[in-house]
Amino acid sequence: MTRGDGPAGAPDAAGLIEILITRDQLAAACAELGDELSRTLEGGAPPIMVGVLKGSTLFLADLVRAMSIDVAVDFMAISSYEAGASQPTVVRILKDLEQDIGGRDVVIVEDIVDTGLTLTYLRKALSERRPRSLRTVTLLDKAARRIVPVTLEHRAFEIPDVFVVGYGMDFQGRYRNSADLLAVRDLPRLANEPRLLDRPLFGGRDG
């Protein structure tokens, strides 16, 4: 499944954010991907759905509920940083899986794939554990930022190079629980005022 760019909604009064993908579009994408994965993986032991913390959590929850086969769920947390101008990006595992994936069908569940560096590392690390099969499903594909080619067997939306919040994705730990996926059009302004979206999203309630 591959969709095009989500239609942009009307910006808020301050022009700071706009709806990139609506909650209804997100729900429809999860239903379609859930059916696609169920048909692909049916007939064997329950596949292990590996959520990459923290951004994938809402997508993972909706995706597994849309699947018509039994699944197992596990989580990984990873971090990445630039080691220097002449050195590659360094990726390390902060939280590893709690179960053996040897001989199992494994699906990496990502919220967003951009440069491809982190996912390339993750796919290699999990492949070395000898799963029966290894697939990636991502909600968002920001292909414009790709540095290395990486395999995406399933994806919902390709988006332009914009910063997004909502539906599990955050800015400084905030705004994950927006039901719509939002494009931030003035990131420097939000960086200066991290609580600026409280009012347009939550009616000004303190968070």
Describe what this molecule looks like in 3D:
With 207 residues, the chain is of the alpha/beta class. The protein has a domain at 22-159: 3-Layer(aba) Sandwich (Rossmann fold), CATH 3.40.50. Helices cover 24% and strands 30% of the residues. The chain contains 5 helices and 9 strands; from the N terminus they run βαβαβββαββββαα. Strands 4-3-2-5-6-7 form a 6-stranded mixed beta sheet, with helices on both faces. A 3-stranded antiparallel beta sheet has the order 1-9-8. β2 (48-53), α2 and β3 form a beta-alpha-beta unit. α1 (23-41) crosses α2.
Topology readout:
Blueprint: E1 17-21, H1 23-41, E2 48-53, H2 57-65, E3 72-84, E4 87-95, E5 105-113, H3 117-127, E6 133-141, E7 154-158, E8 163-165, E9 181-184, H4 187-192, H5 198-202
Parallel strand pairs: 2-3, 2-5, 5-6, 6-7
Antiparallel strand pairs: 1-9, 3-4, 8-9
